[in-house]
Amino acid sequence: MSGGALILLALAIPICGAVLLSIIGRFAHLRNEVSLVTSCGLLAAVAALVPSVMVGDRPSISLFEFAPGLKFAFEVEPLGMLFALLASFLWIVTTIYSIGYLAANGEPHRTRFHICFSLALASVIGIAFAGNMLTLFFFYEALTLCTYPLVAHSGTEEARRGARRYLAILLSTSIMLLLLAILWTWVAVGTLEFRAGGILMGAVSEPVMAVLLVLYVFGVGKAALMPFHGWLPAAMVAPSPVSALLHAVAVVKAGVFTIVKIGLYIFGLDAIRDFASGEWLLYVSGATILIASLLALRQDNLKHRLAYSTVSQLSYVVLGVAMANAHAVMGASMHIAMHGFAKITLFFCAGAIYTATRKTHVSQLDGIGRRMPFTMGAFTIGALALIGLPPFSGAWSKYYLVLGSLDDGAYALLSVLLISSLLNALYFLPLIVRAYFPTGGQPLPVVGGIAEAPKLQLVAISITALGSVALFAYPQFLFNLLRPLVGM
Questions:
Q1: What is the number of domains present in the chain?
Q2: Whose CA is closest to 476, among 45, 46, 54, 49?
Q3: Residue 102 scores a pLDDT above 90
Q4: How far is CA 88 from CA 38, 45, 96, in A?
Q5: Where would a tag sit more exposed on the chain, N or C end, judged by fewer CB atoms within 10 A?
Q6: SS3 107
Q7: What span, in angstroms and rounded, lies between the C-alpha atoms of 107 and 96?
Q8: Cβ contacts of 55 within 8 Å, gap of 6 or more
Q9: In a domain, 11, yes or no
Q10: Domain for residue 23, yes or no?
Q11: What's the whole-model pTM score?
């Protein structure tokens, strides 16, 4: 099968899965099987593209043309290949987890839940394989609309309020800022294609480039740069599988992926590096890293703590793009995958704790490691990975980001990276310690021995936790895939 056909197949599988789910959704076991088969089929289609991308090919297909040079087109390059692999693999794991979670917690509207999941993954694949900014924008907006029902899933007033804020921030930033930047680029340059080295350098003046950088960066609200981060904590009203989708598989990764694509193919690393008016992006991303970490320290609600942690961790990717050297961009790109496995593990664990104990706050977790040793063991792995300690995945991406700061002699940025890792430890390690060695509060009694969440949830947790270890032990695939991006 040709590369273009595989791209269309990868887009079609989740869409067809959603249609099939809408037909047979009332049959619970069949619904679950269709969801699993659909997710496995998507991974197979995406994985079939890997060999050609690894040898330097760029599979592509153009469907139609809006105007001369303005196509609805797809092209698979290394960064998009990484994002599609991450999303399609973690979709399988999230589907397994969701089946167990929804059943154990008696969640309603399960068919709608799985349909929206399928449509969200179709949107993610469209973003990953987009051949230009117009195609990317179409699927970027589709992703927002597909995930809105998931955020509002429980139907409570709190859920509806959080979903409205989610929708308002993401749509307003993309329509008022990102779309304006895209249209301006089209008028100024005459193309929206993703080209190595960028399309803006030499085509627009430096003041125009400065304005466009502001519009693009803040227009990508899914990257959760402050002050446009409020949608992310608000979305924590959603069930844990949705939180995992938002934070590890789809929405936030779509945001930082888009930032990297814009940096590489719209502006170009040389332009960003030599662009004096772009230094503000270093300050904004660095400030977001530190401020969000400090806010995480104050959160007693476990999912809110994880949400602010995500705001901070996403800005590592933006900081890497702002540094615009080979090591930093490699670290930023690798962090998309490293953070994905670690953070989805943490949200899976939060959902398992809720399922087994109905506990949602850090202050309620004294001694829970004795009752749920498997879950808290996985939580420890995910937390250490985000802190950046070996032998867990986050160590590699932070290593390359540190090298990037040293390459530029940017010791202030190096300090941001080191201080943020210390803050990561401060909001994760006390939680882990009190789970195993409670020193205050009322420890959870271990009545009846170990009481973990249902097996399907534990299977998913074990896969992602082991993935965080495997990415540290075997990072060469990621490095080889991403190396052409930066010429390393």
A1: 1
A2: 54
A3: no
A4: 10, 9, 13
A5: N
A6: coil
A7: 15
A8: none
A9: no
A10: no
A11: 0.92
